[in-house]
Amino acid sequence: MGHGHHHHHHDEPPHDHAADLSVKDEELEPGELSRRSLMRRAGLLGAATVAASAGAAVAATGPAAASGPDHGREPRNGYLWLSGDHHIHTQYSGDAMYRVIDNVRHAAAFGLDWMVITDHGGPQHARIGVEKVNPDIVAARAEHKDVLVFQGLEWNIPGAEHATVFVHPGRREVEVLKEFENSYDGSVKGSGSGPADEALAVAGIAFLGQAVRNRRIPDALFLANHPARRGIDSPHEIRAWRDADPNVAIGFEGAPGHQAAGMPKPLGPGSGRGFYAGSPSGASFPGYPLESYRTFGGFDWMTATVGGLWDSLLAEGLPWTISANSDSHVVYGETATRGPGTNFEVNGFHDDPVYGQPTTLTAGDFWPGYYSRTTVGAEDFSYAAVMNALRAGRVWVDHGHLIAGLDVRLRETGSRRGVTLGGTLEVRKGRRVELVVEVDLATRPNWAQFVPKLARVDVIQGDVTGPAADRDVFTTPTTRVVKSFEVTANAGNKVTFVYPVGVVDRPMYLRVRGTDGNHSAVGLLGAPVDPAGPRMDVVGDADPWVDLWFYSNPVWVRPVG
Amino acid sequence: MNLIGLSTGRRDLPGAEHVLHELVALLGRPAVRLACTHFVGGFVELSLETAAAVPLPEGLSPGEAAVEAHRLGGGRAVLFDGAEELTGVLTVEALVGRSAIERVTVLAGADPGPEARVDTLGHLRPVRVGGTLTLATTPGLLTGGGHGLVPFELADQGTCCGGH
């Protein structure tokens, strides 16, 4: 979906700085300056605006205000839905092997529109890789104009897991990434897991926001990677990242990469799907249940548990997006090896790969686009639009190309208008609301050479109850599956389901999930919450192709008047 | 029952278990009924139940926090009565009958019946839950074929890929 609609990208800065008083008048673009003058005359600029832009007034602003500057401006012909992957390693990571262009060529062939190169932060990368990868990325952009190639890095969050950090291309993309890595990477700084480390993580996110406001870079985003894998991303840390700058820290991986890692031995790695096979350590958050260390239908426990951690964030009324990525290091069944004599420690990169047996059956990754997709509703084909779409929460994710397209719309019953993913519907008290879910079914084979068959679509609904009193809470009581729609065998190319939400007397959110129906189990919070959710993946026996799910971000509704 | 605590100064489980085994070697395995790790403030501390009162060998730091955590019914058992008897694939009934393990659970599922088969995989680390020594398991492949239960805590957690 979305292919054929591409036009040449442009480097339009995504942030409007007019309302941001930390940017001086003389630094504004002419359009921004005139908007600021207008706002000044209207009395709209003041302390509250500044506080909101610094992230201090998050709770008061709600999802609509926090969901990005482009909120509510749906293009006449709808959004351009662009599939991507924000978690990809290259030869500039010690545990990976491919050239940038290898990943880009595969991503393009497998249907991706955007991708982020995220080599591991660390001493070698901070010194060498972060700079040396840039010309490779610039060359790949020129060679593949049909794919947006961002530069980022996989940040070792001080005191926690890894995260994707990436920036809008520009003159200072390397300079800012390098300063960020040298100042805030847990591996570079030798971090542990104490309060000082948590504070350093928050300062790192704030640094990125400041770099945008100071116009050093046009935009920057943060998404936490494999958040539940080792139990070391505590709920209060995740909330602290979000609140450090909600324009930068926007989400986490709903599904980790390494989706082939559960293929059985001897023809596969025989590990946990996503390489989720761990157990608690001294650095783990003690409140997490043992189930959190495994994946469910390929998804991270934080996202897969209906009424769980992700829902507890959404219940605060603040956007938090999910993604699904490859985490490509070495793909399952690889027939190449690192070049002979490669020396990452000294050089900061691995020599180019060369053909070489034996075929690697212990690798657990897929190429970008081959299995996992993060699909965003962009206003146009540009770096800025992809970043804005992610920030706005216009996102759905799938595995194995389970669906070809998704249009989720919340509207007043009888209205043709309404809002889509990430948006907030404001509805007068007493008016009825309905959720319309239109799914383009897969009609062509995926990269495992079968046409995936969607069996069921679930609607999940929860109340927005405001800021969490307990920053370590990871459940929310009202969220549950409210409706399941079966997809009939003769459904054709498209199915449309309408869920009557009814009269809305309180703020709520709705999100959508679907499955091929091969593996289901009662959710961890019980059958009344999720009667047929994803099953816990079996370590050493998890064929990812026969357990496919898609998840959407939420759409919000708020009664007014 | 005598209880001693030891501060290891280690943050990693393998390192702390190494200290544990050295200590057990000093005391003699028969003297040790139960040896546990405890996560205390980012460190891994040890507690040992011994058959008779034994002094902490010279040069080692006592671990009061581990003793307290043990008294509160917590701890991850590295050595326990009968641990050496548990090898290969066993039924739940045999696991509980031959060792100090009192209960077997299955993640995201109901407790297994006595005939359910558990592959020990050479690495059992049952956890004290409110003082009850409990082995958490998950569905998995048995050595030699077929499906059954495997310990939740695996010795090989894919450390080659732990840095990804």
From TrEMBL, chain A:
The record, for Gene3D superfamilies, names: Metal-dependent hydrolases
Q: SUPFAM superfamilies this protein is in?
A: PHP domain-like
**Annotated transmembrane regions:** 44-66
What InterPro entries does this protein map onto?
PHP_dom (IPR004013), PHP_domain (IPR052018), Pol/His_phosphatase_N (IPR003141), Pol/histidinol_Pase-like (IPR016195), TAT_signal (IPR006311)
Q: Does the keyword Membrane apply?
A: yes
The alphabetized UniProt keywords are: Membrane, Transmembrane, Transmembrane helix
Q: Which GO terms describe its molecular function?
A: 5'-3' DNA exonuclease activity; 5'-3' RNA exonuclease activity
Record-annotated Polymerase/histidinol phosphatase N-terminal domain positions: 84-159
Q: Which residues form a coiled coil?
A: none
Disordered, as annotated region: 253-275
- Is this entry keyworded Transmembrane helix? yes
Spell out the CDD domains in the cross-references.
PHP_HisPPase (cd07432)
What name appears for this protein in its UniProt entry?
Polymerase/histidinol phosphatase N-terminal domain-containing protein
Q: Which organism is it from?
A: Nonomuraea soli
| Source lineage | Bacteria, Bacillati, Actinomycetota, Actinomycetes, Streptosporangiales
Automatic annotation (TrEMBL), chain B:
The protein here is known as Uncharacterized protein
Q: Origin organism of this chain?
A: Nonomuraea soli
